[in-house]
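Let us practice reading a record.
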Amino acid sequence: MSREAVWWVLLAVMALATVLLFNYWASFQPLSTLAYTGIVLVVCGLANLALPFRFLGIRRRTVGALVLTSGVVIVLAALLWPGPLVRVAEHKTLLDDILPEFQFYERHSQRVHASPEQVMRGIRQVTLGDLKSYATLMRIRGVALRRPYQDPGSSQLVLDVLSSGFMSLGASEREIVLGGIGKVRPPRPHVKNLAEYTAYGQEGAKVAFNLCVEDAGAGWSTVSTETRVLALDEFSRRVTGVYWRLIVPGSGLLRRQWLEAIKDRAERVPQPES
């Protein structure tokens, strides 16, 4: 096998591993994966325009131009692709009742060797310090949105921090639902409770997410978190689609760290003997 062939094989393996890891974090969001694939192609195309990758057998800058063009087309197609409207067929959770229709969503779950009551206590005990990537990702987000990140401190409870930006939309013994209205163009809507949230139908996007615990039997539970977004107008749908597909990797990483922290705290409490 030639040296160039070895390089291509190594790159293919690295690309496959990256895509698998990416989708693990991003809860298998194909358009987000496609968007970042396009971004990588854009970078590679620009690099080959400057200096062709001869170790891969590329000798001409026109190859770089083709790769660059392909990457731009893929990025635009992935970011601007319309989000289909999804309707919940069977209502099983409070989230289903509160936001049964949405275009964008993300769901993660984690099995925990603890009772549902222990898991709910764990949910309320998790701090920002348990989410190792939180501060870094929030700083990146702040730079992108031109909103400087102010660190509230690692000892702050995650639910308390979220409650400062989202309102409680519902709660039960095994589920917590938070949400709000997102809007790019001012003025920002003043929605104060579930009734106003449900009735709101103007420009913007409804956002709702939950933490839900189910008894899995034999001393085990399943804790899940799902985020849903319903864009209420065409402009908000386009903006939300771009934003959502770019933040999904970081969002997925934080949610997995959150669920792991809940698991860790819930399992610290000794199981009652049967």
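A brief commentary: The chain has two domains: 3-80, 86-268.
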